[in-house]
Design a protein that fits this description.
Helix content is 74%, strand content 0%. By secondary structure, it is mainly α.
């Protein structure tokens, strides 16, 4: 049974959509704010998960446009990066349509705690030297399967997917943190497009909720890109660290 939402519910969803989008652009985990709110408002978990993808889709487009205008969007190896991500996204979204979200909760917690440990104890993995040579996926051991795994997770639940991608792009493929964030959005758009098609097919979208989220997410993405271009890499690392811990706390609370 669908919830009965009023104007104040939609205003709250839009406002938190702005905040969540800024968080997603700078680090990740914004969906850990949105999904609990939707469920508190009475939206079923599967519908909340699917409707959130509408906002993420348009947030990604807006964010990519901002990074591209600032000439911070690397495109040389996009095909090598996107193929495993999209295939993983398809697998993950199909799993999400038949399995409960709780199936991957232990893996989510362990992964996010691992990223938090990396950002605190191994900052060099996220603060790539300016003269470091960017690596192609085809020439980097474990890059393809790790990107595929990140795509599965993103397709399954979305929340926290950025925490998986940033260490891969910055630590493994040697992109600086700003460009890693730009690539994160490209990949998010790719597996979200696949996931969205699956959720539409299974009727898991509440379009009015998704549309309101999209408006908030677009506004937040514009603000988030401007902040990402101004903040120092070390500040970005600390934002990632803090948001990872917040996401872990949110996942434990749920």
């Amino acid at each position: 049974m669908m919830a009965d939402l009023n104007l104040w519910h939609y205003l709250a969803i839009a406002a938190l959509g702005i905040v969540a989008s800024i968080v997603n652009i700078l680090a990740g985990g914004g969906s850990n704010l949105i999904l609990p709110l939707l469920m508190i408002f009475g939206v079923p978990p599967d519908i909340a998960n699917g409707s959130n993808r509408v906002g993420i889709f348009f947030q990604s487009i807006a964010g990519i446009r901002g990074f591209k205008q600032a000439d911070k969007l690397p495109t040389a190896d996009l095909r090598g990066i996107l193929v495993p991500m999209m295939l993983g996204g398809l697998v993950g979204s199909l799993l999400a349509s038949i399995l409960p979200n709780s199936v991957l909760k232990p893996a989510l917690l362990l992964t996010m705690l691992g990223v938090a440990a990396i950002t605190f104890f191994k900052p060099g993995l996220l603060l790539t030297p300016e003269n470091a040579e960017v690596r192609k996926v085809a020439d980097t051991p474990w890059a393809w399967p790790l990107l595929f795994a990140a795509g599965i997770y993103g397709g399954f639940v979305q929340a926290g997917a950025g925490f998986l991608m940033l260490p891969l792009f910055a630590g493994l493929l040697c992109y600086d943190l700003v460009r890693a964030n730009a690539l994160k959005l490209v990949c998010t758009l790719a597996f979200t497009a696949v996931s969205l098609a699956v959720f539409i097919w299974y009727g898991k979208i509440w379009w009015l909720v998704g549309g309101v989220l999209a408006v908030g997410n677009i506004i937040g993405a514009v603000i988030g890109v401007r902040l990402a271009l101004k903040l120092s890499p070390n500040t970005m690392r600390w934002i990632l660290f803090v948001m990872t811990l917040v996401a872990v706390a949110g996942a434990l609370w749920k």
